[in-house]
Write a structure and sequence with these properties.
This is Medium/long-chain acyl-CoA thioesterase YigI. This protein is α+β, with helices and mostly antiparallel strands. It has one domain (9-154): Roll (Thiol Ester Dehydrase, Chain A), CATH 3.10.129.10. It is built from 4 helices and 8 strands; from the N terminus they run ααββββααββββ. It has helices spanning 9-21, 24-29, 62-84, 90-98; strands at 32-36, 41-46, 52-54, 59-60, 101-109, 117-127, 131-140, 145-154. A 6-stranded antiparallel sheet has the order 1-2-6-7-8-5. A two-stranded antiparallel ribbon has the order 3-4. Helix 1 runs antiparallel to helix 3 (62-84).
């Protein structure tokens, strides 16, 4: 008997949304999931007073920037893992994906986080059997590039 597959992007989107919405930290920050495809994941974050890191200038905290890039990168790594784990049963796949975690994250802060809405996007650079590498970017509402990140994620 062939194991059930998560073949369609709709099934993958649903799985990513389910996991994303169960993480209280994402809700606390106010991160919203905009797009999930095999090519990229996009999320946004509205600026709010609690996220300011430099109160003199009202700039987004660097830790929030890193967190947002990590969250979007992890979601993209999960999409890549679906493709690598199609041969597994649903239970085995769920167990592997439940272990998804960040191994390494590098953030380059290019400009101060000024803006009222920040969008993070991620693309898959490489997806292996156990590790995925993802590139992510953060832009403000004027499409100014604020930060870039490269993350390595355990996916299996």
């Amino acid at each position: 008997m062939t194991p059930p597959r998560i073949d369609t992007i709709e099934e993958q989107q649903h799985a990513v949304r389910q996991l994303f919405e169960r993480i209280p930290f994402n809700e606390y920050l106010g991160i919203e999931l905009d797009e999930v495809s095999r090519q990229r994941v996009v999320m946004h974050l509205p600026m709010k007073h609690e996220l300011i890191g430099n109160f003199f200038h009202g700039i987004l905290h660097g830790g929030v920037i890193a967190s947002l890039l990590d969250v979007v990168g992890g979601a993209m790594a999960m999409i890549g893992a679906f493709e690598k784990h199609q041969h597994l049963t649903t239970e085995e796949r769920a167990l592997r994906l439940s272990r998804l975690g960040t191994i390494d994250l590098r953030i380059d802060y290019l400009r101060p986080g000024r803006g009222s809405r920040f969008s993070a996007s991620a693309t898959l650079l490489r997806s292996g059997n156990k590790v995925a590498v993802v590139r992510s970017e953060l832009h403000n509402e004027e499409d100014v590039l604020i930060a870039v990140g490269t993350g390595t994620y355990l996916c299996g």
